[in-house]
Amino acid sequence: MVGVCSSPNSFTRNAELTLINKIQFLNTKLCISGSQDQEKDNVVTNLGCWGTTHTVFATGLYGAHTPGNWYVENANIAGFVNQLVFNNQGGYFGSHFRNIFAESLGRFGLIFSNQSTTVESSELGFAYYFNETGEYTNPQIDCSGVTFIGCNIRMYGTFQPVTIHGSSTFMGCSFETVPFAVYSVRDYPSFVNTFVQGSACPLGLSGSRNTYPAEASQCHSYGHYKITSGAVSLTTDNAEPAMAYPIDLMGNGVTLNITTDNSGVRSAVVPLGPEQAGRVKKGDVICNSPGENIQAILGTVTSVTANNFTLSYIPSILKGGERLYLSVFLPLYTMSFLGDITAGSNQITNVKTDFGDFQKFLTHGGLMYCNRFINSQGNQHWRRSQFRVVAWDASSHTITLDQPATRTIKGVYFSNANAVKDVHRKTMERGSKVSIK
Questions:
Q1: What is the pLDDT of residue 31?
Q2: How many whole angstroms separate alpha carbon 298 and alpha carbon 301?
Q3: DSSP secondary-structure letter at 92?
Q4: E strands, 249-404, where?
Q5: Are 319 and 296 in contact (CB under 8 A)?
Q6: Closest by CA position to 392, among listed 384, 403, 400
Q7: In whole angstroms, what is the distance from residue 220 CA to residue 238 CA?
Q8: Which of 76, 208, 287, 307 registers the highest number of CB atoms within 10 A of its CB?
Q9: Do the beta carbons of residue 29 and residue 57 sit within 8 Å?
Q10: Which class for 19: exposed (0-12), middle (13-18), buried (19 or more C-beta within 10 A)?
């Protein structure tokens, strides 16, 4: 059932300057439907949709099957709505969205635009995979040619990545953690001054910023910028792609034997060899490697033993039987330290922290990405500079890693931020500022 269908007869044109105001929907297939390209300057405002609904706004599904020019604003969406929008503009006219509040939203939906479509000042809260959708939805945002401005986008309180596909731009937006996007294809998202909660530096940082050292040490290492304090500096150049780095669980692919429980949740038990057992934790988000036919978040880890882990909430885009290269999807946060490594040992001793805080670093997954620790055993050749810190002992100044070192060296400098000069704490007195450029 369609709530309001504009100009559905496929031959009558006009249907412009329509105002749909103060309207509510419940248990509807489609709330508002536009049908043809003569629909100009039509406005939907003060819309409420509280109940099981497939799509709130769509164009091109009825009548002449062409998109018009619509403005959807001041909407309140809740109660298991599958998607907000279906709008393939196909070179016709742009539609625009603002002041949208959505919770328990299955996915934002699909917009393909060459007409500079905008989504502004909106709260987009996606449904939880563990008790609402039953799977990790891929993608939650599927848009190209769309600019999201000043939007807060998250699965509220989970601090798990939102999944994005397509070449949209996110300006001045915020996420709970670094979002997941497919960067192995040409159409991928970009970020401009977009914030991740609890971090001092945004994705796609442009210009100069001032921040205090305690905040700078928590920032994630994305974007072109320099952290300076007096005569010393630390430069980062991990601007493209602005995403978290997947760390490989195993060098060989694995076939997922998927089972479905009585509630519809799809899971698979993944075997672990002795060298892989420490590389995964309960709660980790698992994805697969770039270049595969399907690149997506595959679910989350719900249990771990010495011999295997259980991957749950596997999305329906995976049919089972595919051979995949699994990775843990981890954000990269600023961390720099000195330490001694020994071939065959998974510990770094005599650790001296130069920049960052290990306890906070571990809460973000503990991923290190630098060229001083080379592992030829587990990682594929293009990721042998990645490893994971799994424990920190402040009393003995020792950190435990997810894999052993392959050589013995004393005084190795590890940094997630491609340090040009060491940033020593003695130059950062309490209350002083550092400049991030």
A1: 97
A2: 10
A3: S
A4: 254-255, 259-260, 266-271, 285-288, 297-304, 308-312, 323-324, 326-330, 336-341, 347-355, 367-369, 386-393, 398-401
A5: no
A6: 400
A7: 10
A8: 287
A9: no
A10: exposed
* Minimum mean pLDDT range among 37-41, 149-153, 226-230, 272-276: 226-230
CA-nearest of 406, 285, 391 to 342 is 406
Q: Stretch 181-204: mean pLDDT, rounded?
A: 77
Q: Which of 299, 297, 332 is nearest to 182 (CA)?
A: 297
Reduced to 3 states, what is the DSSP secondary structure of residue 106? strand
Query: What's phi and psi for 375, nearest 5 deg?
Result: -115, 115
pLDDT in tens, 214-266: 666 666 666 555 556 555 555 555 444 445 677 777 767 889 999 999 999 99
245-330 architecture in CATH?
Beta Barrel (2.40)
For range 60-66, the mean pLDDT: 92
* DSSP-based three-state secondary structure for 421: coil
Per-residue CA distances from 378 to 144, 277, 364, 374 (Å): 36, 11, 22, 10
Report the pLDDT averaged over residues 423-436. Answer: 38
Q: Are the beta carbons of 174 and 191 closer than 8 angstroms?
A: no
d(CA 410, CA 282): 33
Instruction: Calculate the alpha carbon distances from 436 to 174, 178, 339 in Å.
Output: 19, 20, 27
Helix ranges restricted to H, 262-399: 358-363
What does pLDDT average to over the chain? Answer: 83
Asked if the model's pLDDT at residue 284 lies above 80, the reply is yes
Strands (E), 63-165: 70-78, 81-88, 96-120, 123-126, 141-149, 152-154, 163-165
The string of pLDDT tens digits covering residues 195-219 is 888 776 677 655 555 666 666 666 6
For 4, counting Cβ atoms within 10 Å of its Cβ (0-12 exposed, 13-18 middle, 19+ buried), the class is middle
* Residue 153, phi then psi, degrees to nearest 5: -125, 125
CB 229 within 8 A of CB 211: no
Q: How far, in Å, CA of 228 to CA of 179, rounded?
A: 28
Q: Residue 419 pLDDT > 60, yes or no?
A: no
What residues does each domain of the chain span?
Answer: 2-197, 245-330, 336-416
Q: What is the DSSP string of 239-276?
A: -SS-SPEEEES-SS-EE---EE-TT--EEEEEE--TTT
**293-320 per-position pLDDT tens digit:** 778 999 999 999 989 999 999 999 888 7
In contact, 252 and 234? CB cutoff 8 Å:
no
Q: Where is 214: in which H helix or E strand?
A: helix 213-216
